[in-house]
Amino acid sequence: MKTTRDGRPFLVIGENIHATRIVLRSGKRVVATPDGREALIFAGADGSTRQLVVPDAVRSSASFGGGKVKHVRAALVAALSGSDRDAEAGRAYLAWLAARQVAAGADYLDLNVDEISERPEDQRAAMAWLVAAIEAESPIPVALDSSTTEIIRAGLEARDASRPAPLLNSASLERLDVLDLAAEHGCPVVVTAAGGTDLPSNAGERVANAMRMVEAAGARGIPLDRLHIDAIVLPVAVDPAVGGYVVDAIARLRADLGPAVHLTGGFSNVSYGLPVRKLINDVFIDLAAEAGADSGIVDPVASDLDLVFAQDRAARPYRLAENLLRGNDPYGMEFLAAYRSGTLGGGPAGS
Fold first, then answer.
1. Helix axes 177-185 and 203-219, enclosed angle (nearest 10)
2. C-alpha 22: how far from its chain's center?
3. Which of left, alpha, beta for 148 (phi over 0: left; psi -120 to 50: alpha)?
4. What is the pTM (predicted TM-score) of this model?
5. DSSP 168
6. Which of 3, 269, 310, 348 sits at a 20 to 30 Å CA gap from 301?
7. What is the pLDDT of residues 51-61, one digit of tens each?
8. If you ran DSSP here, which 8-state letter would residue 55 be given?
9. Choice between 83 and 307, residue whose per-residue pLDDT is larger
10. DSSP H helical segments within the chain, as ranges?
């Protein structure tokens, strides 16, 4: 567990064992094999450099043709392939991902298999296998993440009941049956501030939706300290005001609900479509924690939270990112100008 600037605990829900996650084919994580295929490189348990050949099912996908490798999906496909060599490499790759997040301070490992296949039976089998595989490798509990309640249920049925209860991700006003699972199994649960069919358009709607979820959880006997309220983080590149809405909603929920409840979010969503994403993400995590967030669905390897909570708030890159996130720099005109000039780090000037 990490701590914020003022010493409060901050729970890390490590987000990277997720079948949507990509690495670039042109990046350092992908190498050519002697037979002209591509492989993902990773560290074995003994520290040696290993390779996971990208399975044909992943190579034939549109994202692969577009220069991206869904690396977690590749590992899952290999692990479930039936070929001893490929299966061992796939499992070792997933164990490496888990070990990195644990070492970086994750408190939960978020598992999502939705994109392994369009077939529900494949998704159920993959979630059951993945839960068992990660529990065998990791000392920390898992988070069961899916857009389908039955996939979450499959993970629950596969878990080791002697271990701490998994976090369920997530319940919403349209998915109250996930609350039923959480109540039945005594699990903590992420509850989202999404509305019925529409996403919330401001801070007030986020707070109202979240309070409806708190009421629904309470009716099922789920206490506040088992709830992680997700204030719904959307890209600031699409809605310049969304960062401010999320921070405001977190502050209001903390004031209204007190210290027991957990306030969280997929904070990296805020930077989609923008350059220097790490800077934006790190500043947003810091702002959310200052407002009252004590949990985050984040990549602790990419965002070292010890450094996140020690950022210099007076530094120009921080202030530019904060202005962007709070809606004071609509569509990031000042931020993007600084990026183009190379003064944010990672910019195009001289690169």
1. 50
2. 13
3. beta
4. 0.95
5. E
6. 348
7. 999 999 999 99
8. P
9. 307
10. 56-59, 62-65, 71-79, 84-103, 120-137, 149-158, 177-185, 203-219, 242-257, 277-291, 305-308, 316-325, 333-341
